[in-house]
Amino acid sequence: MKTTVKKMICLILALAVVIACFAACRDENGFNDKVEVTGMGLHVSENGWITLNGKPFYGFGFVFKDAFKMRLSDPSTDLEPYFAKLKEGGIPFVRIMLGFDTVEMVRKYTDERDAFFSAMDYVVETAKKYEIGIVANLFWDMECVATANWDNLDNMMTQDDSNAYKFCVKYIDDVVARYKDAPSVWAWEITNEANLWCEVKKIPKEYTDGSIYNTNFTTEKLKQFYTYASEEIRKADPYRMITNGDSSPRFFSKALREDYNSAPWDTYEDIVETFSIYTSGSIDCQSIHTPYISYLEKYTKAARELKKGLYVGAFSGSLYTNLDESKTPENDVYEANERDSFNAYVDAYLEYGIQMAAVRNFASYAVDPEDDASVEVGTASGVFRNTYVWDRIVSENAKLVTDGKNNASEYWGSVRS
Fold this sequence. Notes:
Layout: H1 2-24, E1 42-44, E2 50-52, E3 55-56, E4 59-63, H2 67-73, H3 80-88, E5 93-97, H4 103-111, H5 113-129, E6 133-139, H6 142-148, H7 153-158, H8 163-179, E7 185-191, H9 219-236, E8 241-243, H10 253-259, H11 268-278, E9 285-289, H12 296-306, E10 309-315, H13 333-351, E11 356-360, E12 376-377, E13 384-385, H14 387-402, H15 408-416
Parallel strand pairs: 4-5, 4-11, 5-6, 6-7, 7-8, 9-10, 10-11
Antiparallel strand pairs: 1-2, 2-3, 12-13
Helix pairs in contact: 2-5, 4-5, 4-6, 6-8, 8-9, 11-12
């Protein structure tokens, strides 16, 4: 009898240990995926969790789009003060264009490869020095790539014997292979807001800025591009997160792509279908930009249903064009509204468990002094602008570290050793 009781006690204790271990490997949102760390940077787990070093990662970063462009334009440009400031603020990642937004940049790659990659190497190594991760965008502006190759977007998307298509494959192979083992490259991003170019000819004027990029550009063509581009990336890098770089879908995306109509607006099921198209091929993370807060629940649920990661690749408050730094949220009602809307976005991302979100923009003053979204903290000519944004992001990242959700320091420790 005593032996039986002892066995039961041992069994109960063993079961308790198993339950405790099972609970320990789950985070508060239910993460329970087994992740084998076989590469550098971010990885999307089997059920759509963005992980770093095998654990769910949460953090706020910045869009530092032109870091590479600044160095490429002028090889004497010192980016260390920028990265040092990011390090000082505990900013874990930045989103950088490691590709093109002008024909001239494409020409640099084709005609001056040594200078092109010298500038890119500098950015990647500087980020490593200051332990900042990079979401590396490869084709920020697709149209300039097609134009530089004496081609058009249709061919670039769909024709594997076209100049632009072959160019994209070669560029992916060059860049991904070059930085596959770079610890500062955290994720690959294909383009920027290309989903907003689709079926643009039929979009009502109130939903566009009037720009018509390519009247024949369609969602189906974009899907083909995403498929071959992501699969080419995945061949060279089996591990890292691949995201599309999309903006939030138009509210009537299904009606637009199927009937060239602006009604009806998308249901939840339509959003799932749209995300499934945008995450074709080997894309494992859906990007959204400045999503309406009222849609966040649907977006997070849809991504989870598809077992894809979800990250906000760019956001800001409701912008108020004001380059007069004497006006602040404390003395100007419009600045106060901008601050309040920004804080509302941050609050919503935290509430809905958005793992990563990047503020636009960090230190773009050096390229565009009139960018009213730029967060300036003294790195460019001693200019300070939108500092309340910096303060909030620094504060939230510090809380995520304290709460054990931001394990960037653990990651950098592991790659240093």
